[in-house]
Amino acid sequence: MSAEIICVGTELLLGDILNSNSQFLAQQLAKLGIPHYYQTVVGDNPERLKQVIEIAISRANILIFTGGLGPTPDDLTCETIADFFGAPLVEYPEIIEDIAQKFAQRGRVMTPTNRKQALIPQGAEVLPNPTGTAPGIIWQPRPEITIFTFPGVPSEMHRMWQETAVPFLQSQGWGKEIIYSRSLRFWGIGESALAEKVASYFNLPNPTVAPYAGKGEVRLRISAKATSEAAAEELIAPIEKQLKEIAGLDCYGADNDTLASVVGQLLRSAGETVSVAESCTGGGLGQMLTEISGSSDYFWGGVISYDNSAKVRMLGVKPEDLDKFGAVSGIVAEQMALGVKSRLETTWGLSITGIAGPGGGTETKPVGLVYIGLVGPNDELKSFEYRFGTMRDRWFIRHLSACTALDLLRRQLLTR
Amino acid sequence: MSAEIICVGTELLLGDILNSNSQFLAQQLAKLGIPHYYQTVVGDNPERLKQVIEIAISRANILIFTGGLGPTPDDLTCETIADFFGAPLVEYPEIIEDIAQKFAQRGRVMTPTNRKQALIPQGAEVLPNPTGTAPGIIWQPRPEITIFTFPGVPSEMHRMWQETAVPFLQSQGWGKEIIYSRSLRFWGIGESALAEKVASYFNLPNPTVAPYAGKGEVRLRISAKATSEAAAEELIAPIEKQLKEIAGLDCYGADNDTLASVVGQLLRSAGETVSVAESCTGGGLGQMLTEISGSSDYFWGGVISYDNSAKVRMLGVKPEDLDKFGAVSGIVAEQMALGVKSRLETTWGLSITGIAGPGGGTETKPVGLVYIGLVGPNDELKSFEYRFGTMRDRWFIRHLSACTALDLLRRQLLTR
């Protein structure tokens, strides 16, 4: 028994979009212990899609399709699969009603083309789509073949997978031997430096430990093969503990933790609050903090002081210091942090001012130069200088700036 | 003649990495006008890789492999291909020398396992790797089949593609007919509604027109086959013009335009400025505006008024209106917009207040309820109510809120 992932969409063949659905499904199959040896991408073309199905059923039993379930004429996945297995399409009135309701909720009227999305192969089960209009199917057109279809929109697909496909696969006996992983997340240490510290762990048989790097952070994935999540946890726990001890403060969390969520937990448990003053990140730090639902308990707001006039008017930065030291300086970062803290009366004030590029750099103040200001309960002003490098792009410098600011506050909260 | 992309690597089957190589190669093939109908992913397994080659040569002439060229025992791509076509492997002393030099440059000594990377199928041409140790090959094992191999490391692959594969393919006559695309981008209209308006264009032979949707926006891709970019532009231009006329204000731009970049261009050409006041988006609107380098010309900053106290202190929102109408109301949105505009003395003030969820919704004010406030040069206050639906996640509601705010300002700038 094995699965094959088949992603349908001419946009994939043109390179218009990145195939993140394959990665998600691959991870999910591993988690359930379902072997999977092939992934295929094919365009919105019925003849080629049929050839792909022919090949897939010769080497896999579970076929997972994404894409091509939309309302437009080039969306052909469902009808092509039905045609391949010789099943007629049946219109489901309850799907039409569901689609009409979703349109109504958004104050729109359903168009006739959407009726197409209510056509399901005879004998298939509807895989409901709670957020979008395109339902999927679970279908056994032959006793040995199980077919899943999902829309190509990742958020819709993820939810449908978790809510319907996983319970179905578990009911079929999958998930008895699982691969279960924990990702430890690190900030403030590079991949090779961390790898050297924990090198001896990379040869473990079960759980295995492997490093990954991306977007400025490093992860260590601890993966255990076991008969249950609890048994896997038991294998993972001692290794996790040892790795955390070796890494110390550089390990900020695991799995779905983010720097913002970890800072939020620390602030909440201390009964403290934070406000932000942002220049080069333009709101990105506030956005990260407010990605967490319930962040209003500890995040009170901030000032986006993009222009110098905003720094003076909204934060009380001294014009003479702007003239003397420039907007990108430690002293201005400190005044920004103090200004927002005192105006919003929070426990902490956190600020960022820097040069995100690609323009605006000079010899003494190159692109990538960033100052982070921090002021806490005792009103002691601190600022930190970073040089994120002139070769990194604007997005990355802004991302590193906001993450580093959060990490600074995290370390401050943990070590005071 | 067509190409197939074959990515080799168990890490892809485990979902450890995102398959960005497929996207890069797909874009590159489109640029050269090389048709390409299938992409396959297979693990580091010789038997399965041979089956994949068998299928690929039955439906394509150009096989492009990435991955599996490393020095470790699980890197089997090159020898498996050689074995499939019955060619012996030949050791190239100049490759060994090149690898040894690269190790020396990094102050390391070449390990014996790296010798493996110098084995090339007899008759194949070496595709040099300027930055890494793994060279690729260009090989015609049969007159009608051309094989390329590349390492899986994206940066190495990109450079080898550009420097060696592209000139080779051009010397074979490719790149004379190219596929060139323009993506028109829409906000404020759904995929099916737009598709109905422009349905007659979906049957055009050249250029073709196809819709796709994601993250709240719809695109129409116009793709032309032609002998040059200029010739493709000529085919695209009249269709682009007609589609824009049909769509009117709903079409906000093309290709790399974003709502923020379009708003920025309009503000810059009018010599006007904007400031923002954000509640539920927490800085996301400011972040979008400042993604554009040079946005300091027209974006002066803003206030993240997440807590009600910030709305009162930093924006002058009336406490009695907060009590009477609630923070999520049209009147508060208007006061936020006016507050930030007057404090920062900008031409426009733009505000967002809403319930991003998943918590915080009530029967009368459900998750997804968002008010956007706008005030312009004549100080006329406007607010707009949106119901983005209770089923969408926090990220998406915040994204829709920020994009819709930018779109409102865009429409205002275009129609005043």
What is the multimeric organization of the chains shown? homodimer
Biggest beta-sheet profile of chain A: 6 strands, mixed
**What is the C-level CATH assignment of the largest domain in chain A?**
Alpha Beta
CATH topology of the largest domain in chain A: Molybdenum Cofactor Biosythetic Enzyme, Chain A
CATH superfamily label of the largest domain in chain A: MoaB/Mog-like domain
**Which residues of chain A sit in consecutive blocks of at least 5 with pLDDT less than 50?**
none
**Structural domains of chain A: how many:** 3
Shape of chain A: globular
CATH architecture of the largest domain in chain A: 3-Layer(aba) Sandwich
Number of strands of chain A: 17
The number of helices of chain A is: 14
Rounded to the nearest angstrom, the distance between the terminal CA atoms of chain A is 55 Å
Instruction: Give the radius of gyration of chain A.
Output: 26 Å
- Structural class of the secondary elements of chain A? alpha/beta
Side by side, the strands of the main sheet of chain A go 2-1-3-8-7-6
Could you tell me which chain pair has the largest interface and how many residues each side has? A-B, 98 and 100 residues
Percent of sequence in beta strands of chain A = 15-25%
Mean pLDDT of chain A: 94
Describe the structure.
2 copies of one chain form a homodimer. Chain A is α/β, with parallel strands linked by helices and 416 residues long. Chain A has 14 helices and 17 strands. The first copy, chain A, is globular and about 80 Å long. At the A-B interface, helix 1, helix 2, strand 2, helix 3 and strand 13 of A face helix 2, strand 2, helix 3, strand 9 and helix 7 of B.
